[in-house]
Write a structure and sequence with these properties.
Layout (H helix, E strand, L loop, with lengths): L1 E5 L2 H9 L2 E8 L2 E8 L2 E7 L4 H15 L3 E10 L9 E9 L22 E2 L2 H11 L6 E8 L7 H11 L1 E5 L2 H11 L2 E10 L5 H26 L1
Parallel strand pairs: 1-4, 1-5, 5-10, 6-8, 8-9
Antiparallel strand pairs: 2-3, 3-4, 5-9, 6-7, 6-10
The structure holds S-adenosyl-L-homocysteine.
The site of S-adenosyl-L-homocysteine has 18 residues, from strand 5, strand 9, strand 10 and helix 6.
């Protein structure tokens, strides 16, 4: 079973439209779609925006549908000059950029208890996602993806996240999904297409490029399902 989570309708609708034998189940207000794509078992959900919804969704998916792997798909802001709108960012690891106990001497982003900052994605999942992005006519980079409960839209914040975590893209769900997968021992990956520059004009880019970015993320996950 391959689990797929997107935050918004636009991020899941293409993949939902190619699913066959679809059944639905609602848990904690989230609709889980189970069915088949390329003959493979899929569970798909729209978690909603932000880290809490993302964590609830990942935990409910793991406990109820027992996926072998979860891939978080969708859109993100770029943190580098080399990734532009419509390009693909694949996480090697994820971090919570807004998790901060640094006044107590901890590194920024430390997840106390498990005592790590970066949550590593499954290496085979990363490799396969990278391979599946190749046929698209856009740039693809693998690196750290940073999540926080805020839409990043200032050069100052963008530069803080890039420098502190060496991150290539920012969004609002990936690290939560990775965190939940990590504590449950489930393989995971995060696949995002760039919707905006995460700076002062990001809200303008975002409205224009979300549909294109969501389509590109769909194309990669579709290839991934076929190859997995
Ligand atoms: N009220 C809006 C909120 C969208 S938030 C709505 O319900 O549609 C933006 C979404 O896109 C989040 O899911 C986040 O993961 C992603 N995203 C894209 N660009 C981002 C950026 N610059 N900073 C943070 N998240 C971003």
């Amino acid at each position: 079973m391959i689990g797929i989570i997107g935050a918004m309708q636009i991020e899941i609708e293409h993949i939902k439209s190619v699913m066959e034998y679809v059944k639905t189940k609602e848990i904690s207000g989230i609709i889980f779609y189970t069915g088949k794509i390329y003959g493979k078992d899929i569970t798909l959900a729209k978690c909603g925006i932000g880290k809490v919804f993302a964590a609830v969704c990942a935990e409910a998916m793991i406990l109820n549908f027992k996926p072998d792997v979860i891939v978080n798909i969708g859109v993100a802001g770029t943190l580098t000059d080399s990734l532009n709108t419509a390009d693909i960012a694949i996480a090697k690891s994820v971090v919570h950029h807004d998790l901060d106990t640094s006044p107590l001497g901890d590194p920024f982003g430390l997840i106390s208890g498990i005592n790590i900052v970066n949550i590593e994605c499954d290496k085979n999942v990363v490799r396969l996602l990278e391979k599946c992005a190749k046929p698209l006519d856009v740039k693809c980079e693998c690196g750290v993806i940073a999540s926080g409960d805020q839409f990043v839209c200032t050069s100052e914040k963008k530069s803080y996240i890039r420098k502190t975590f060496n991150a290539i893209a920012c969004e609002m769900e990936g690290a939560s999904i990775g965190h939940v997968c990590f504590i449950n021992g489930v393989k995971f990956g995060v696949l995002r297409a760039i919707s905006d520059g995460a700076d002062e004009k990001s809200h303008m880019d975002y409205q224009e490029f979300v549909p294109i970015a969501a389509k590109n993320s769909f194309k990669v996950i579709k290839n991934f399902i076929e190859e997995y």
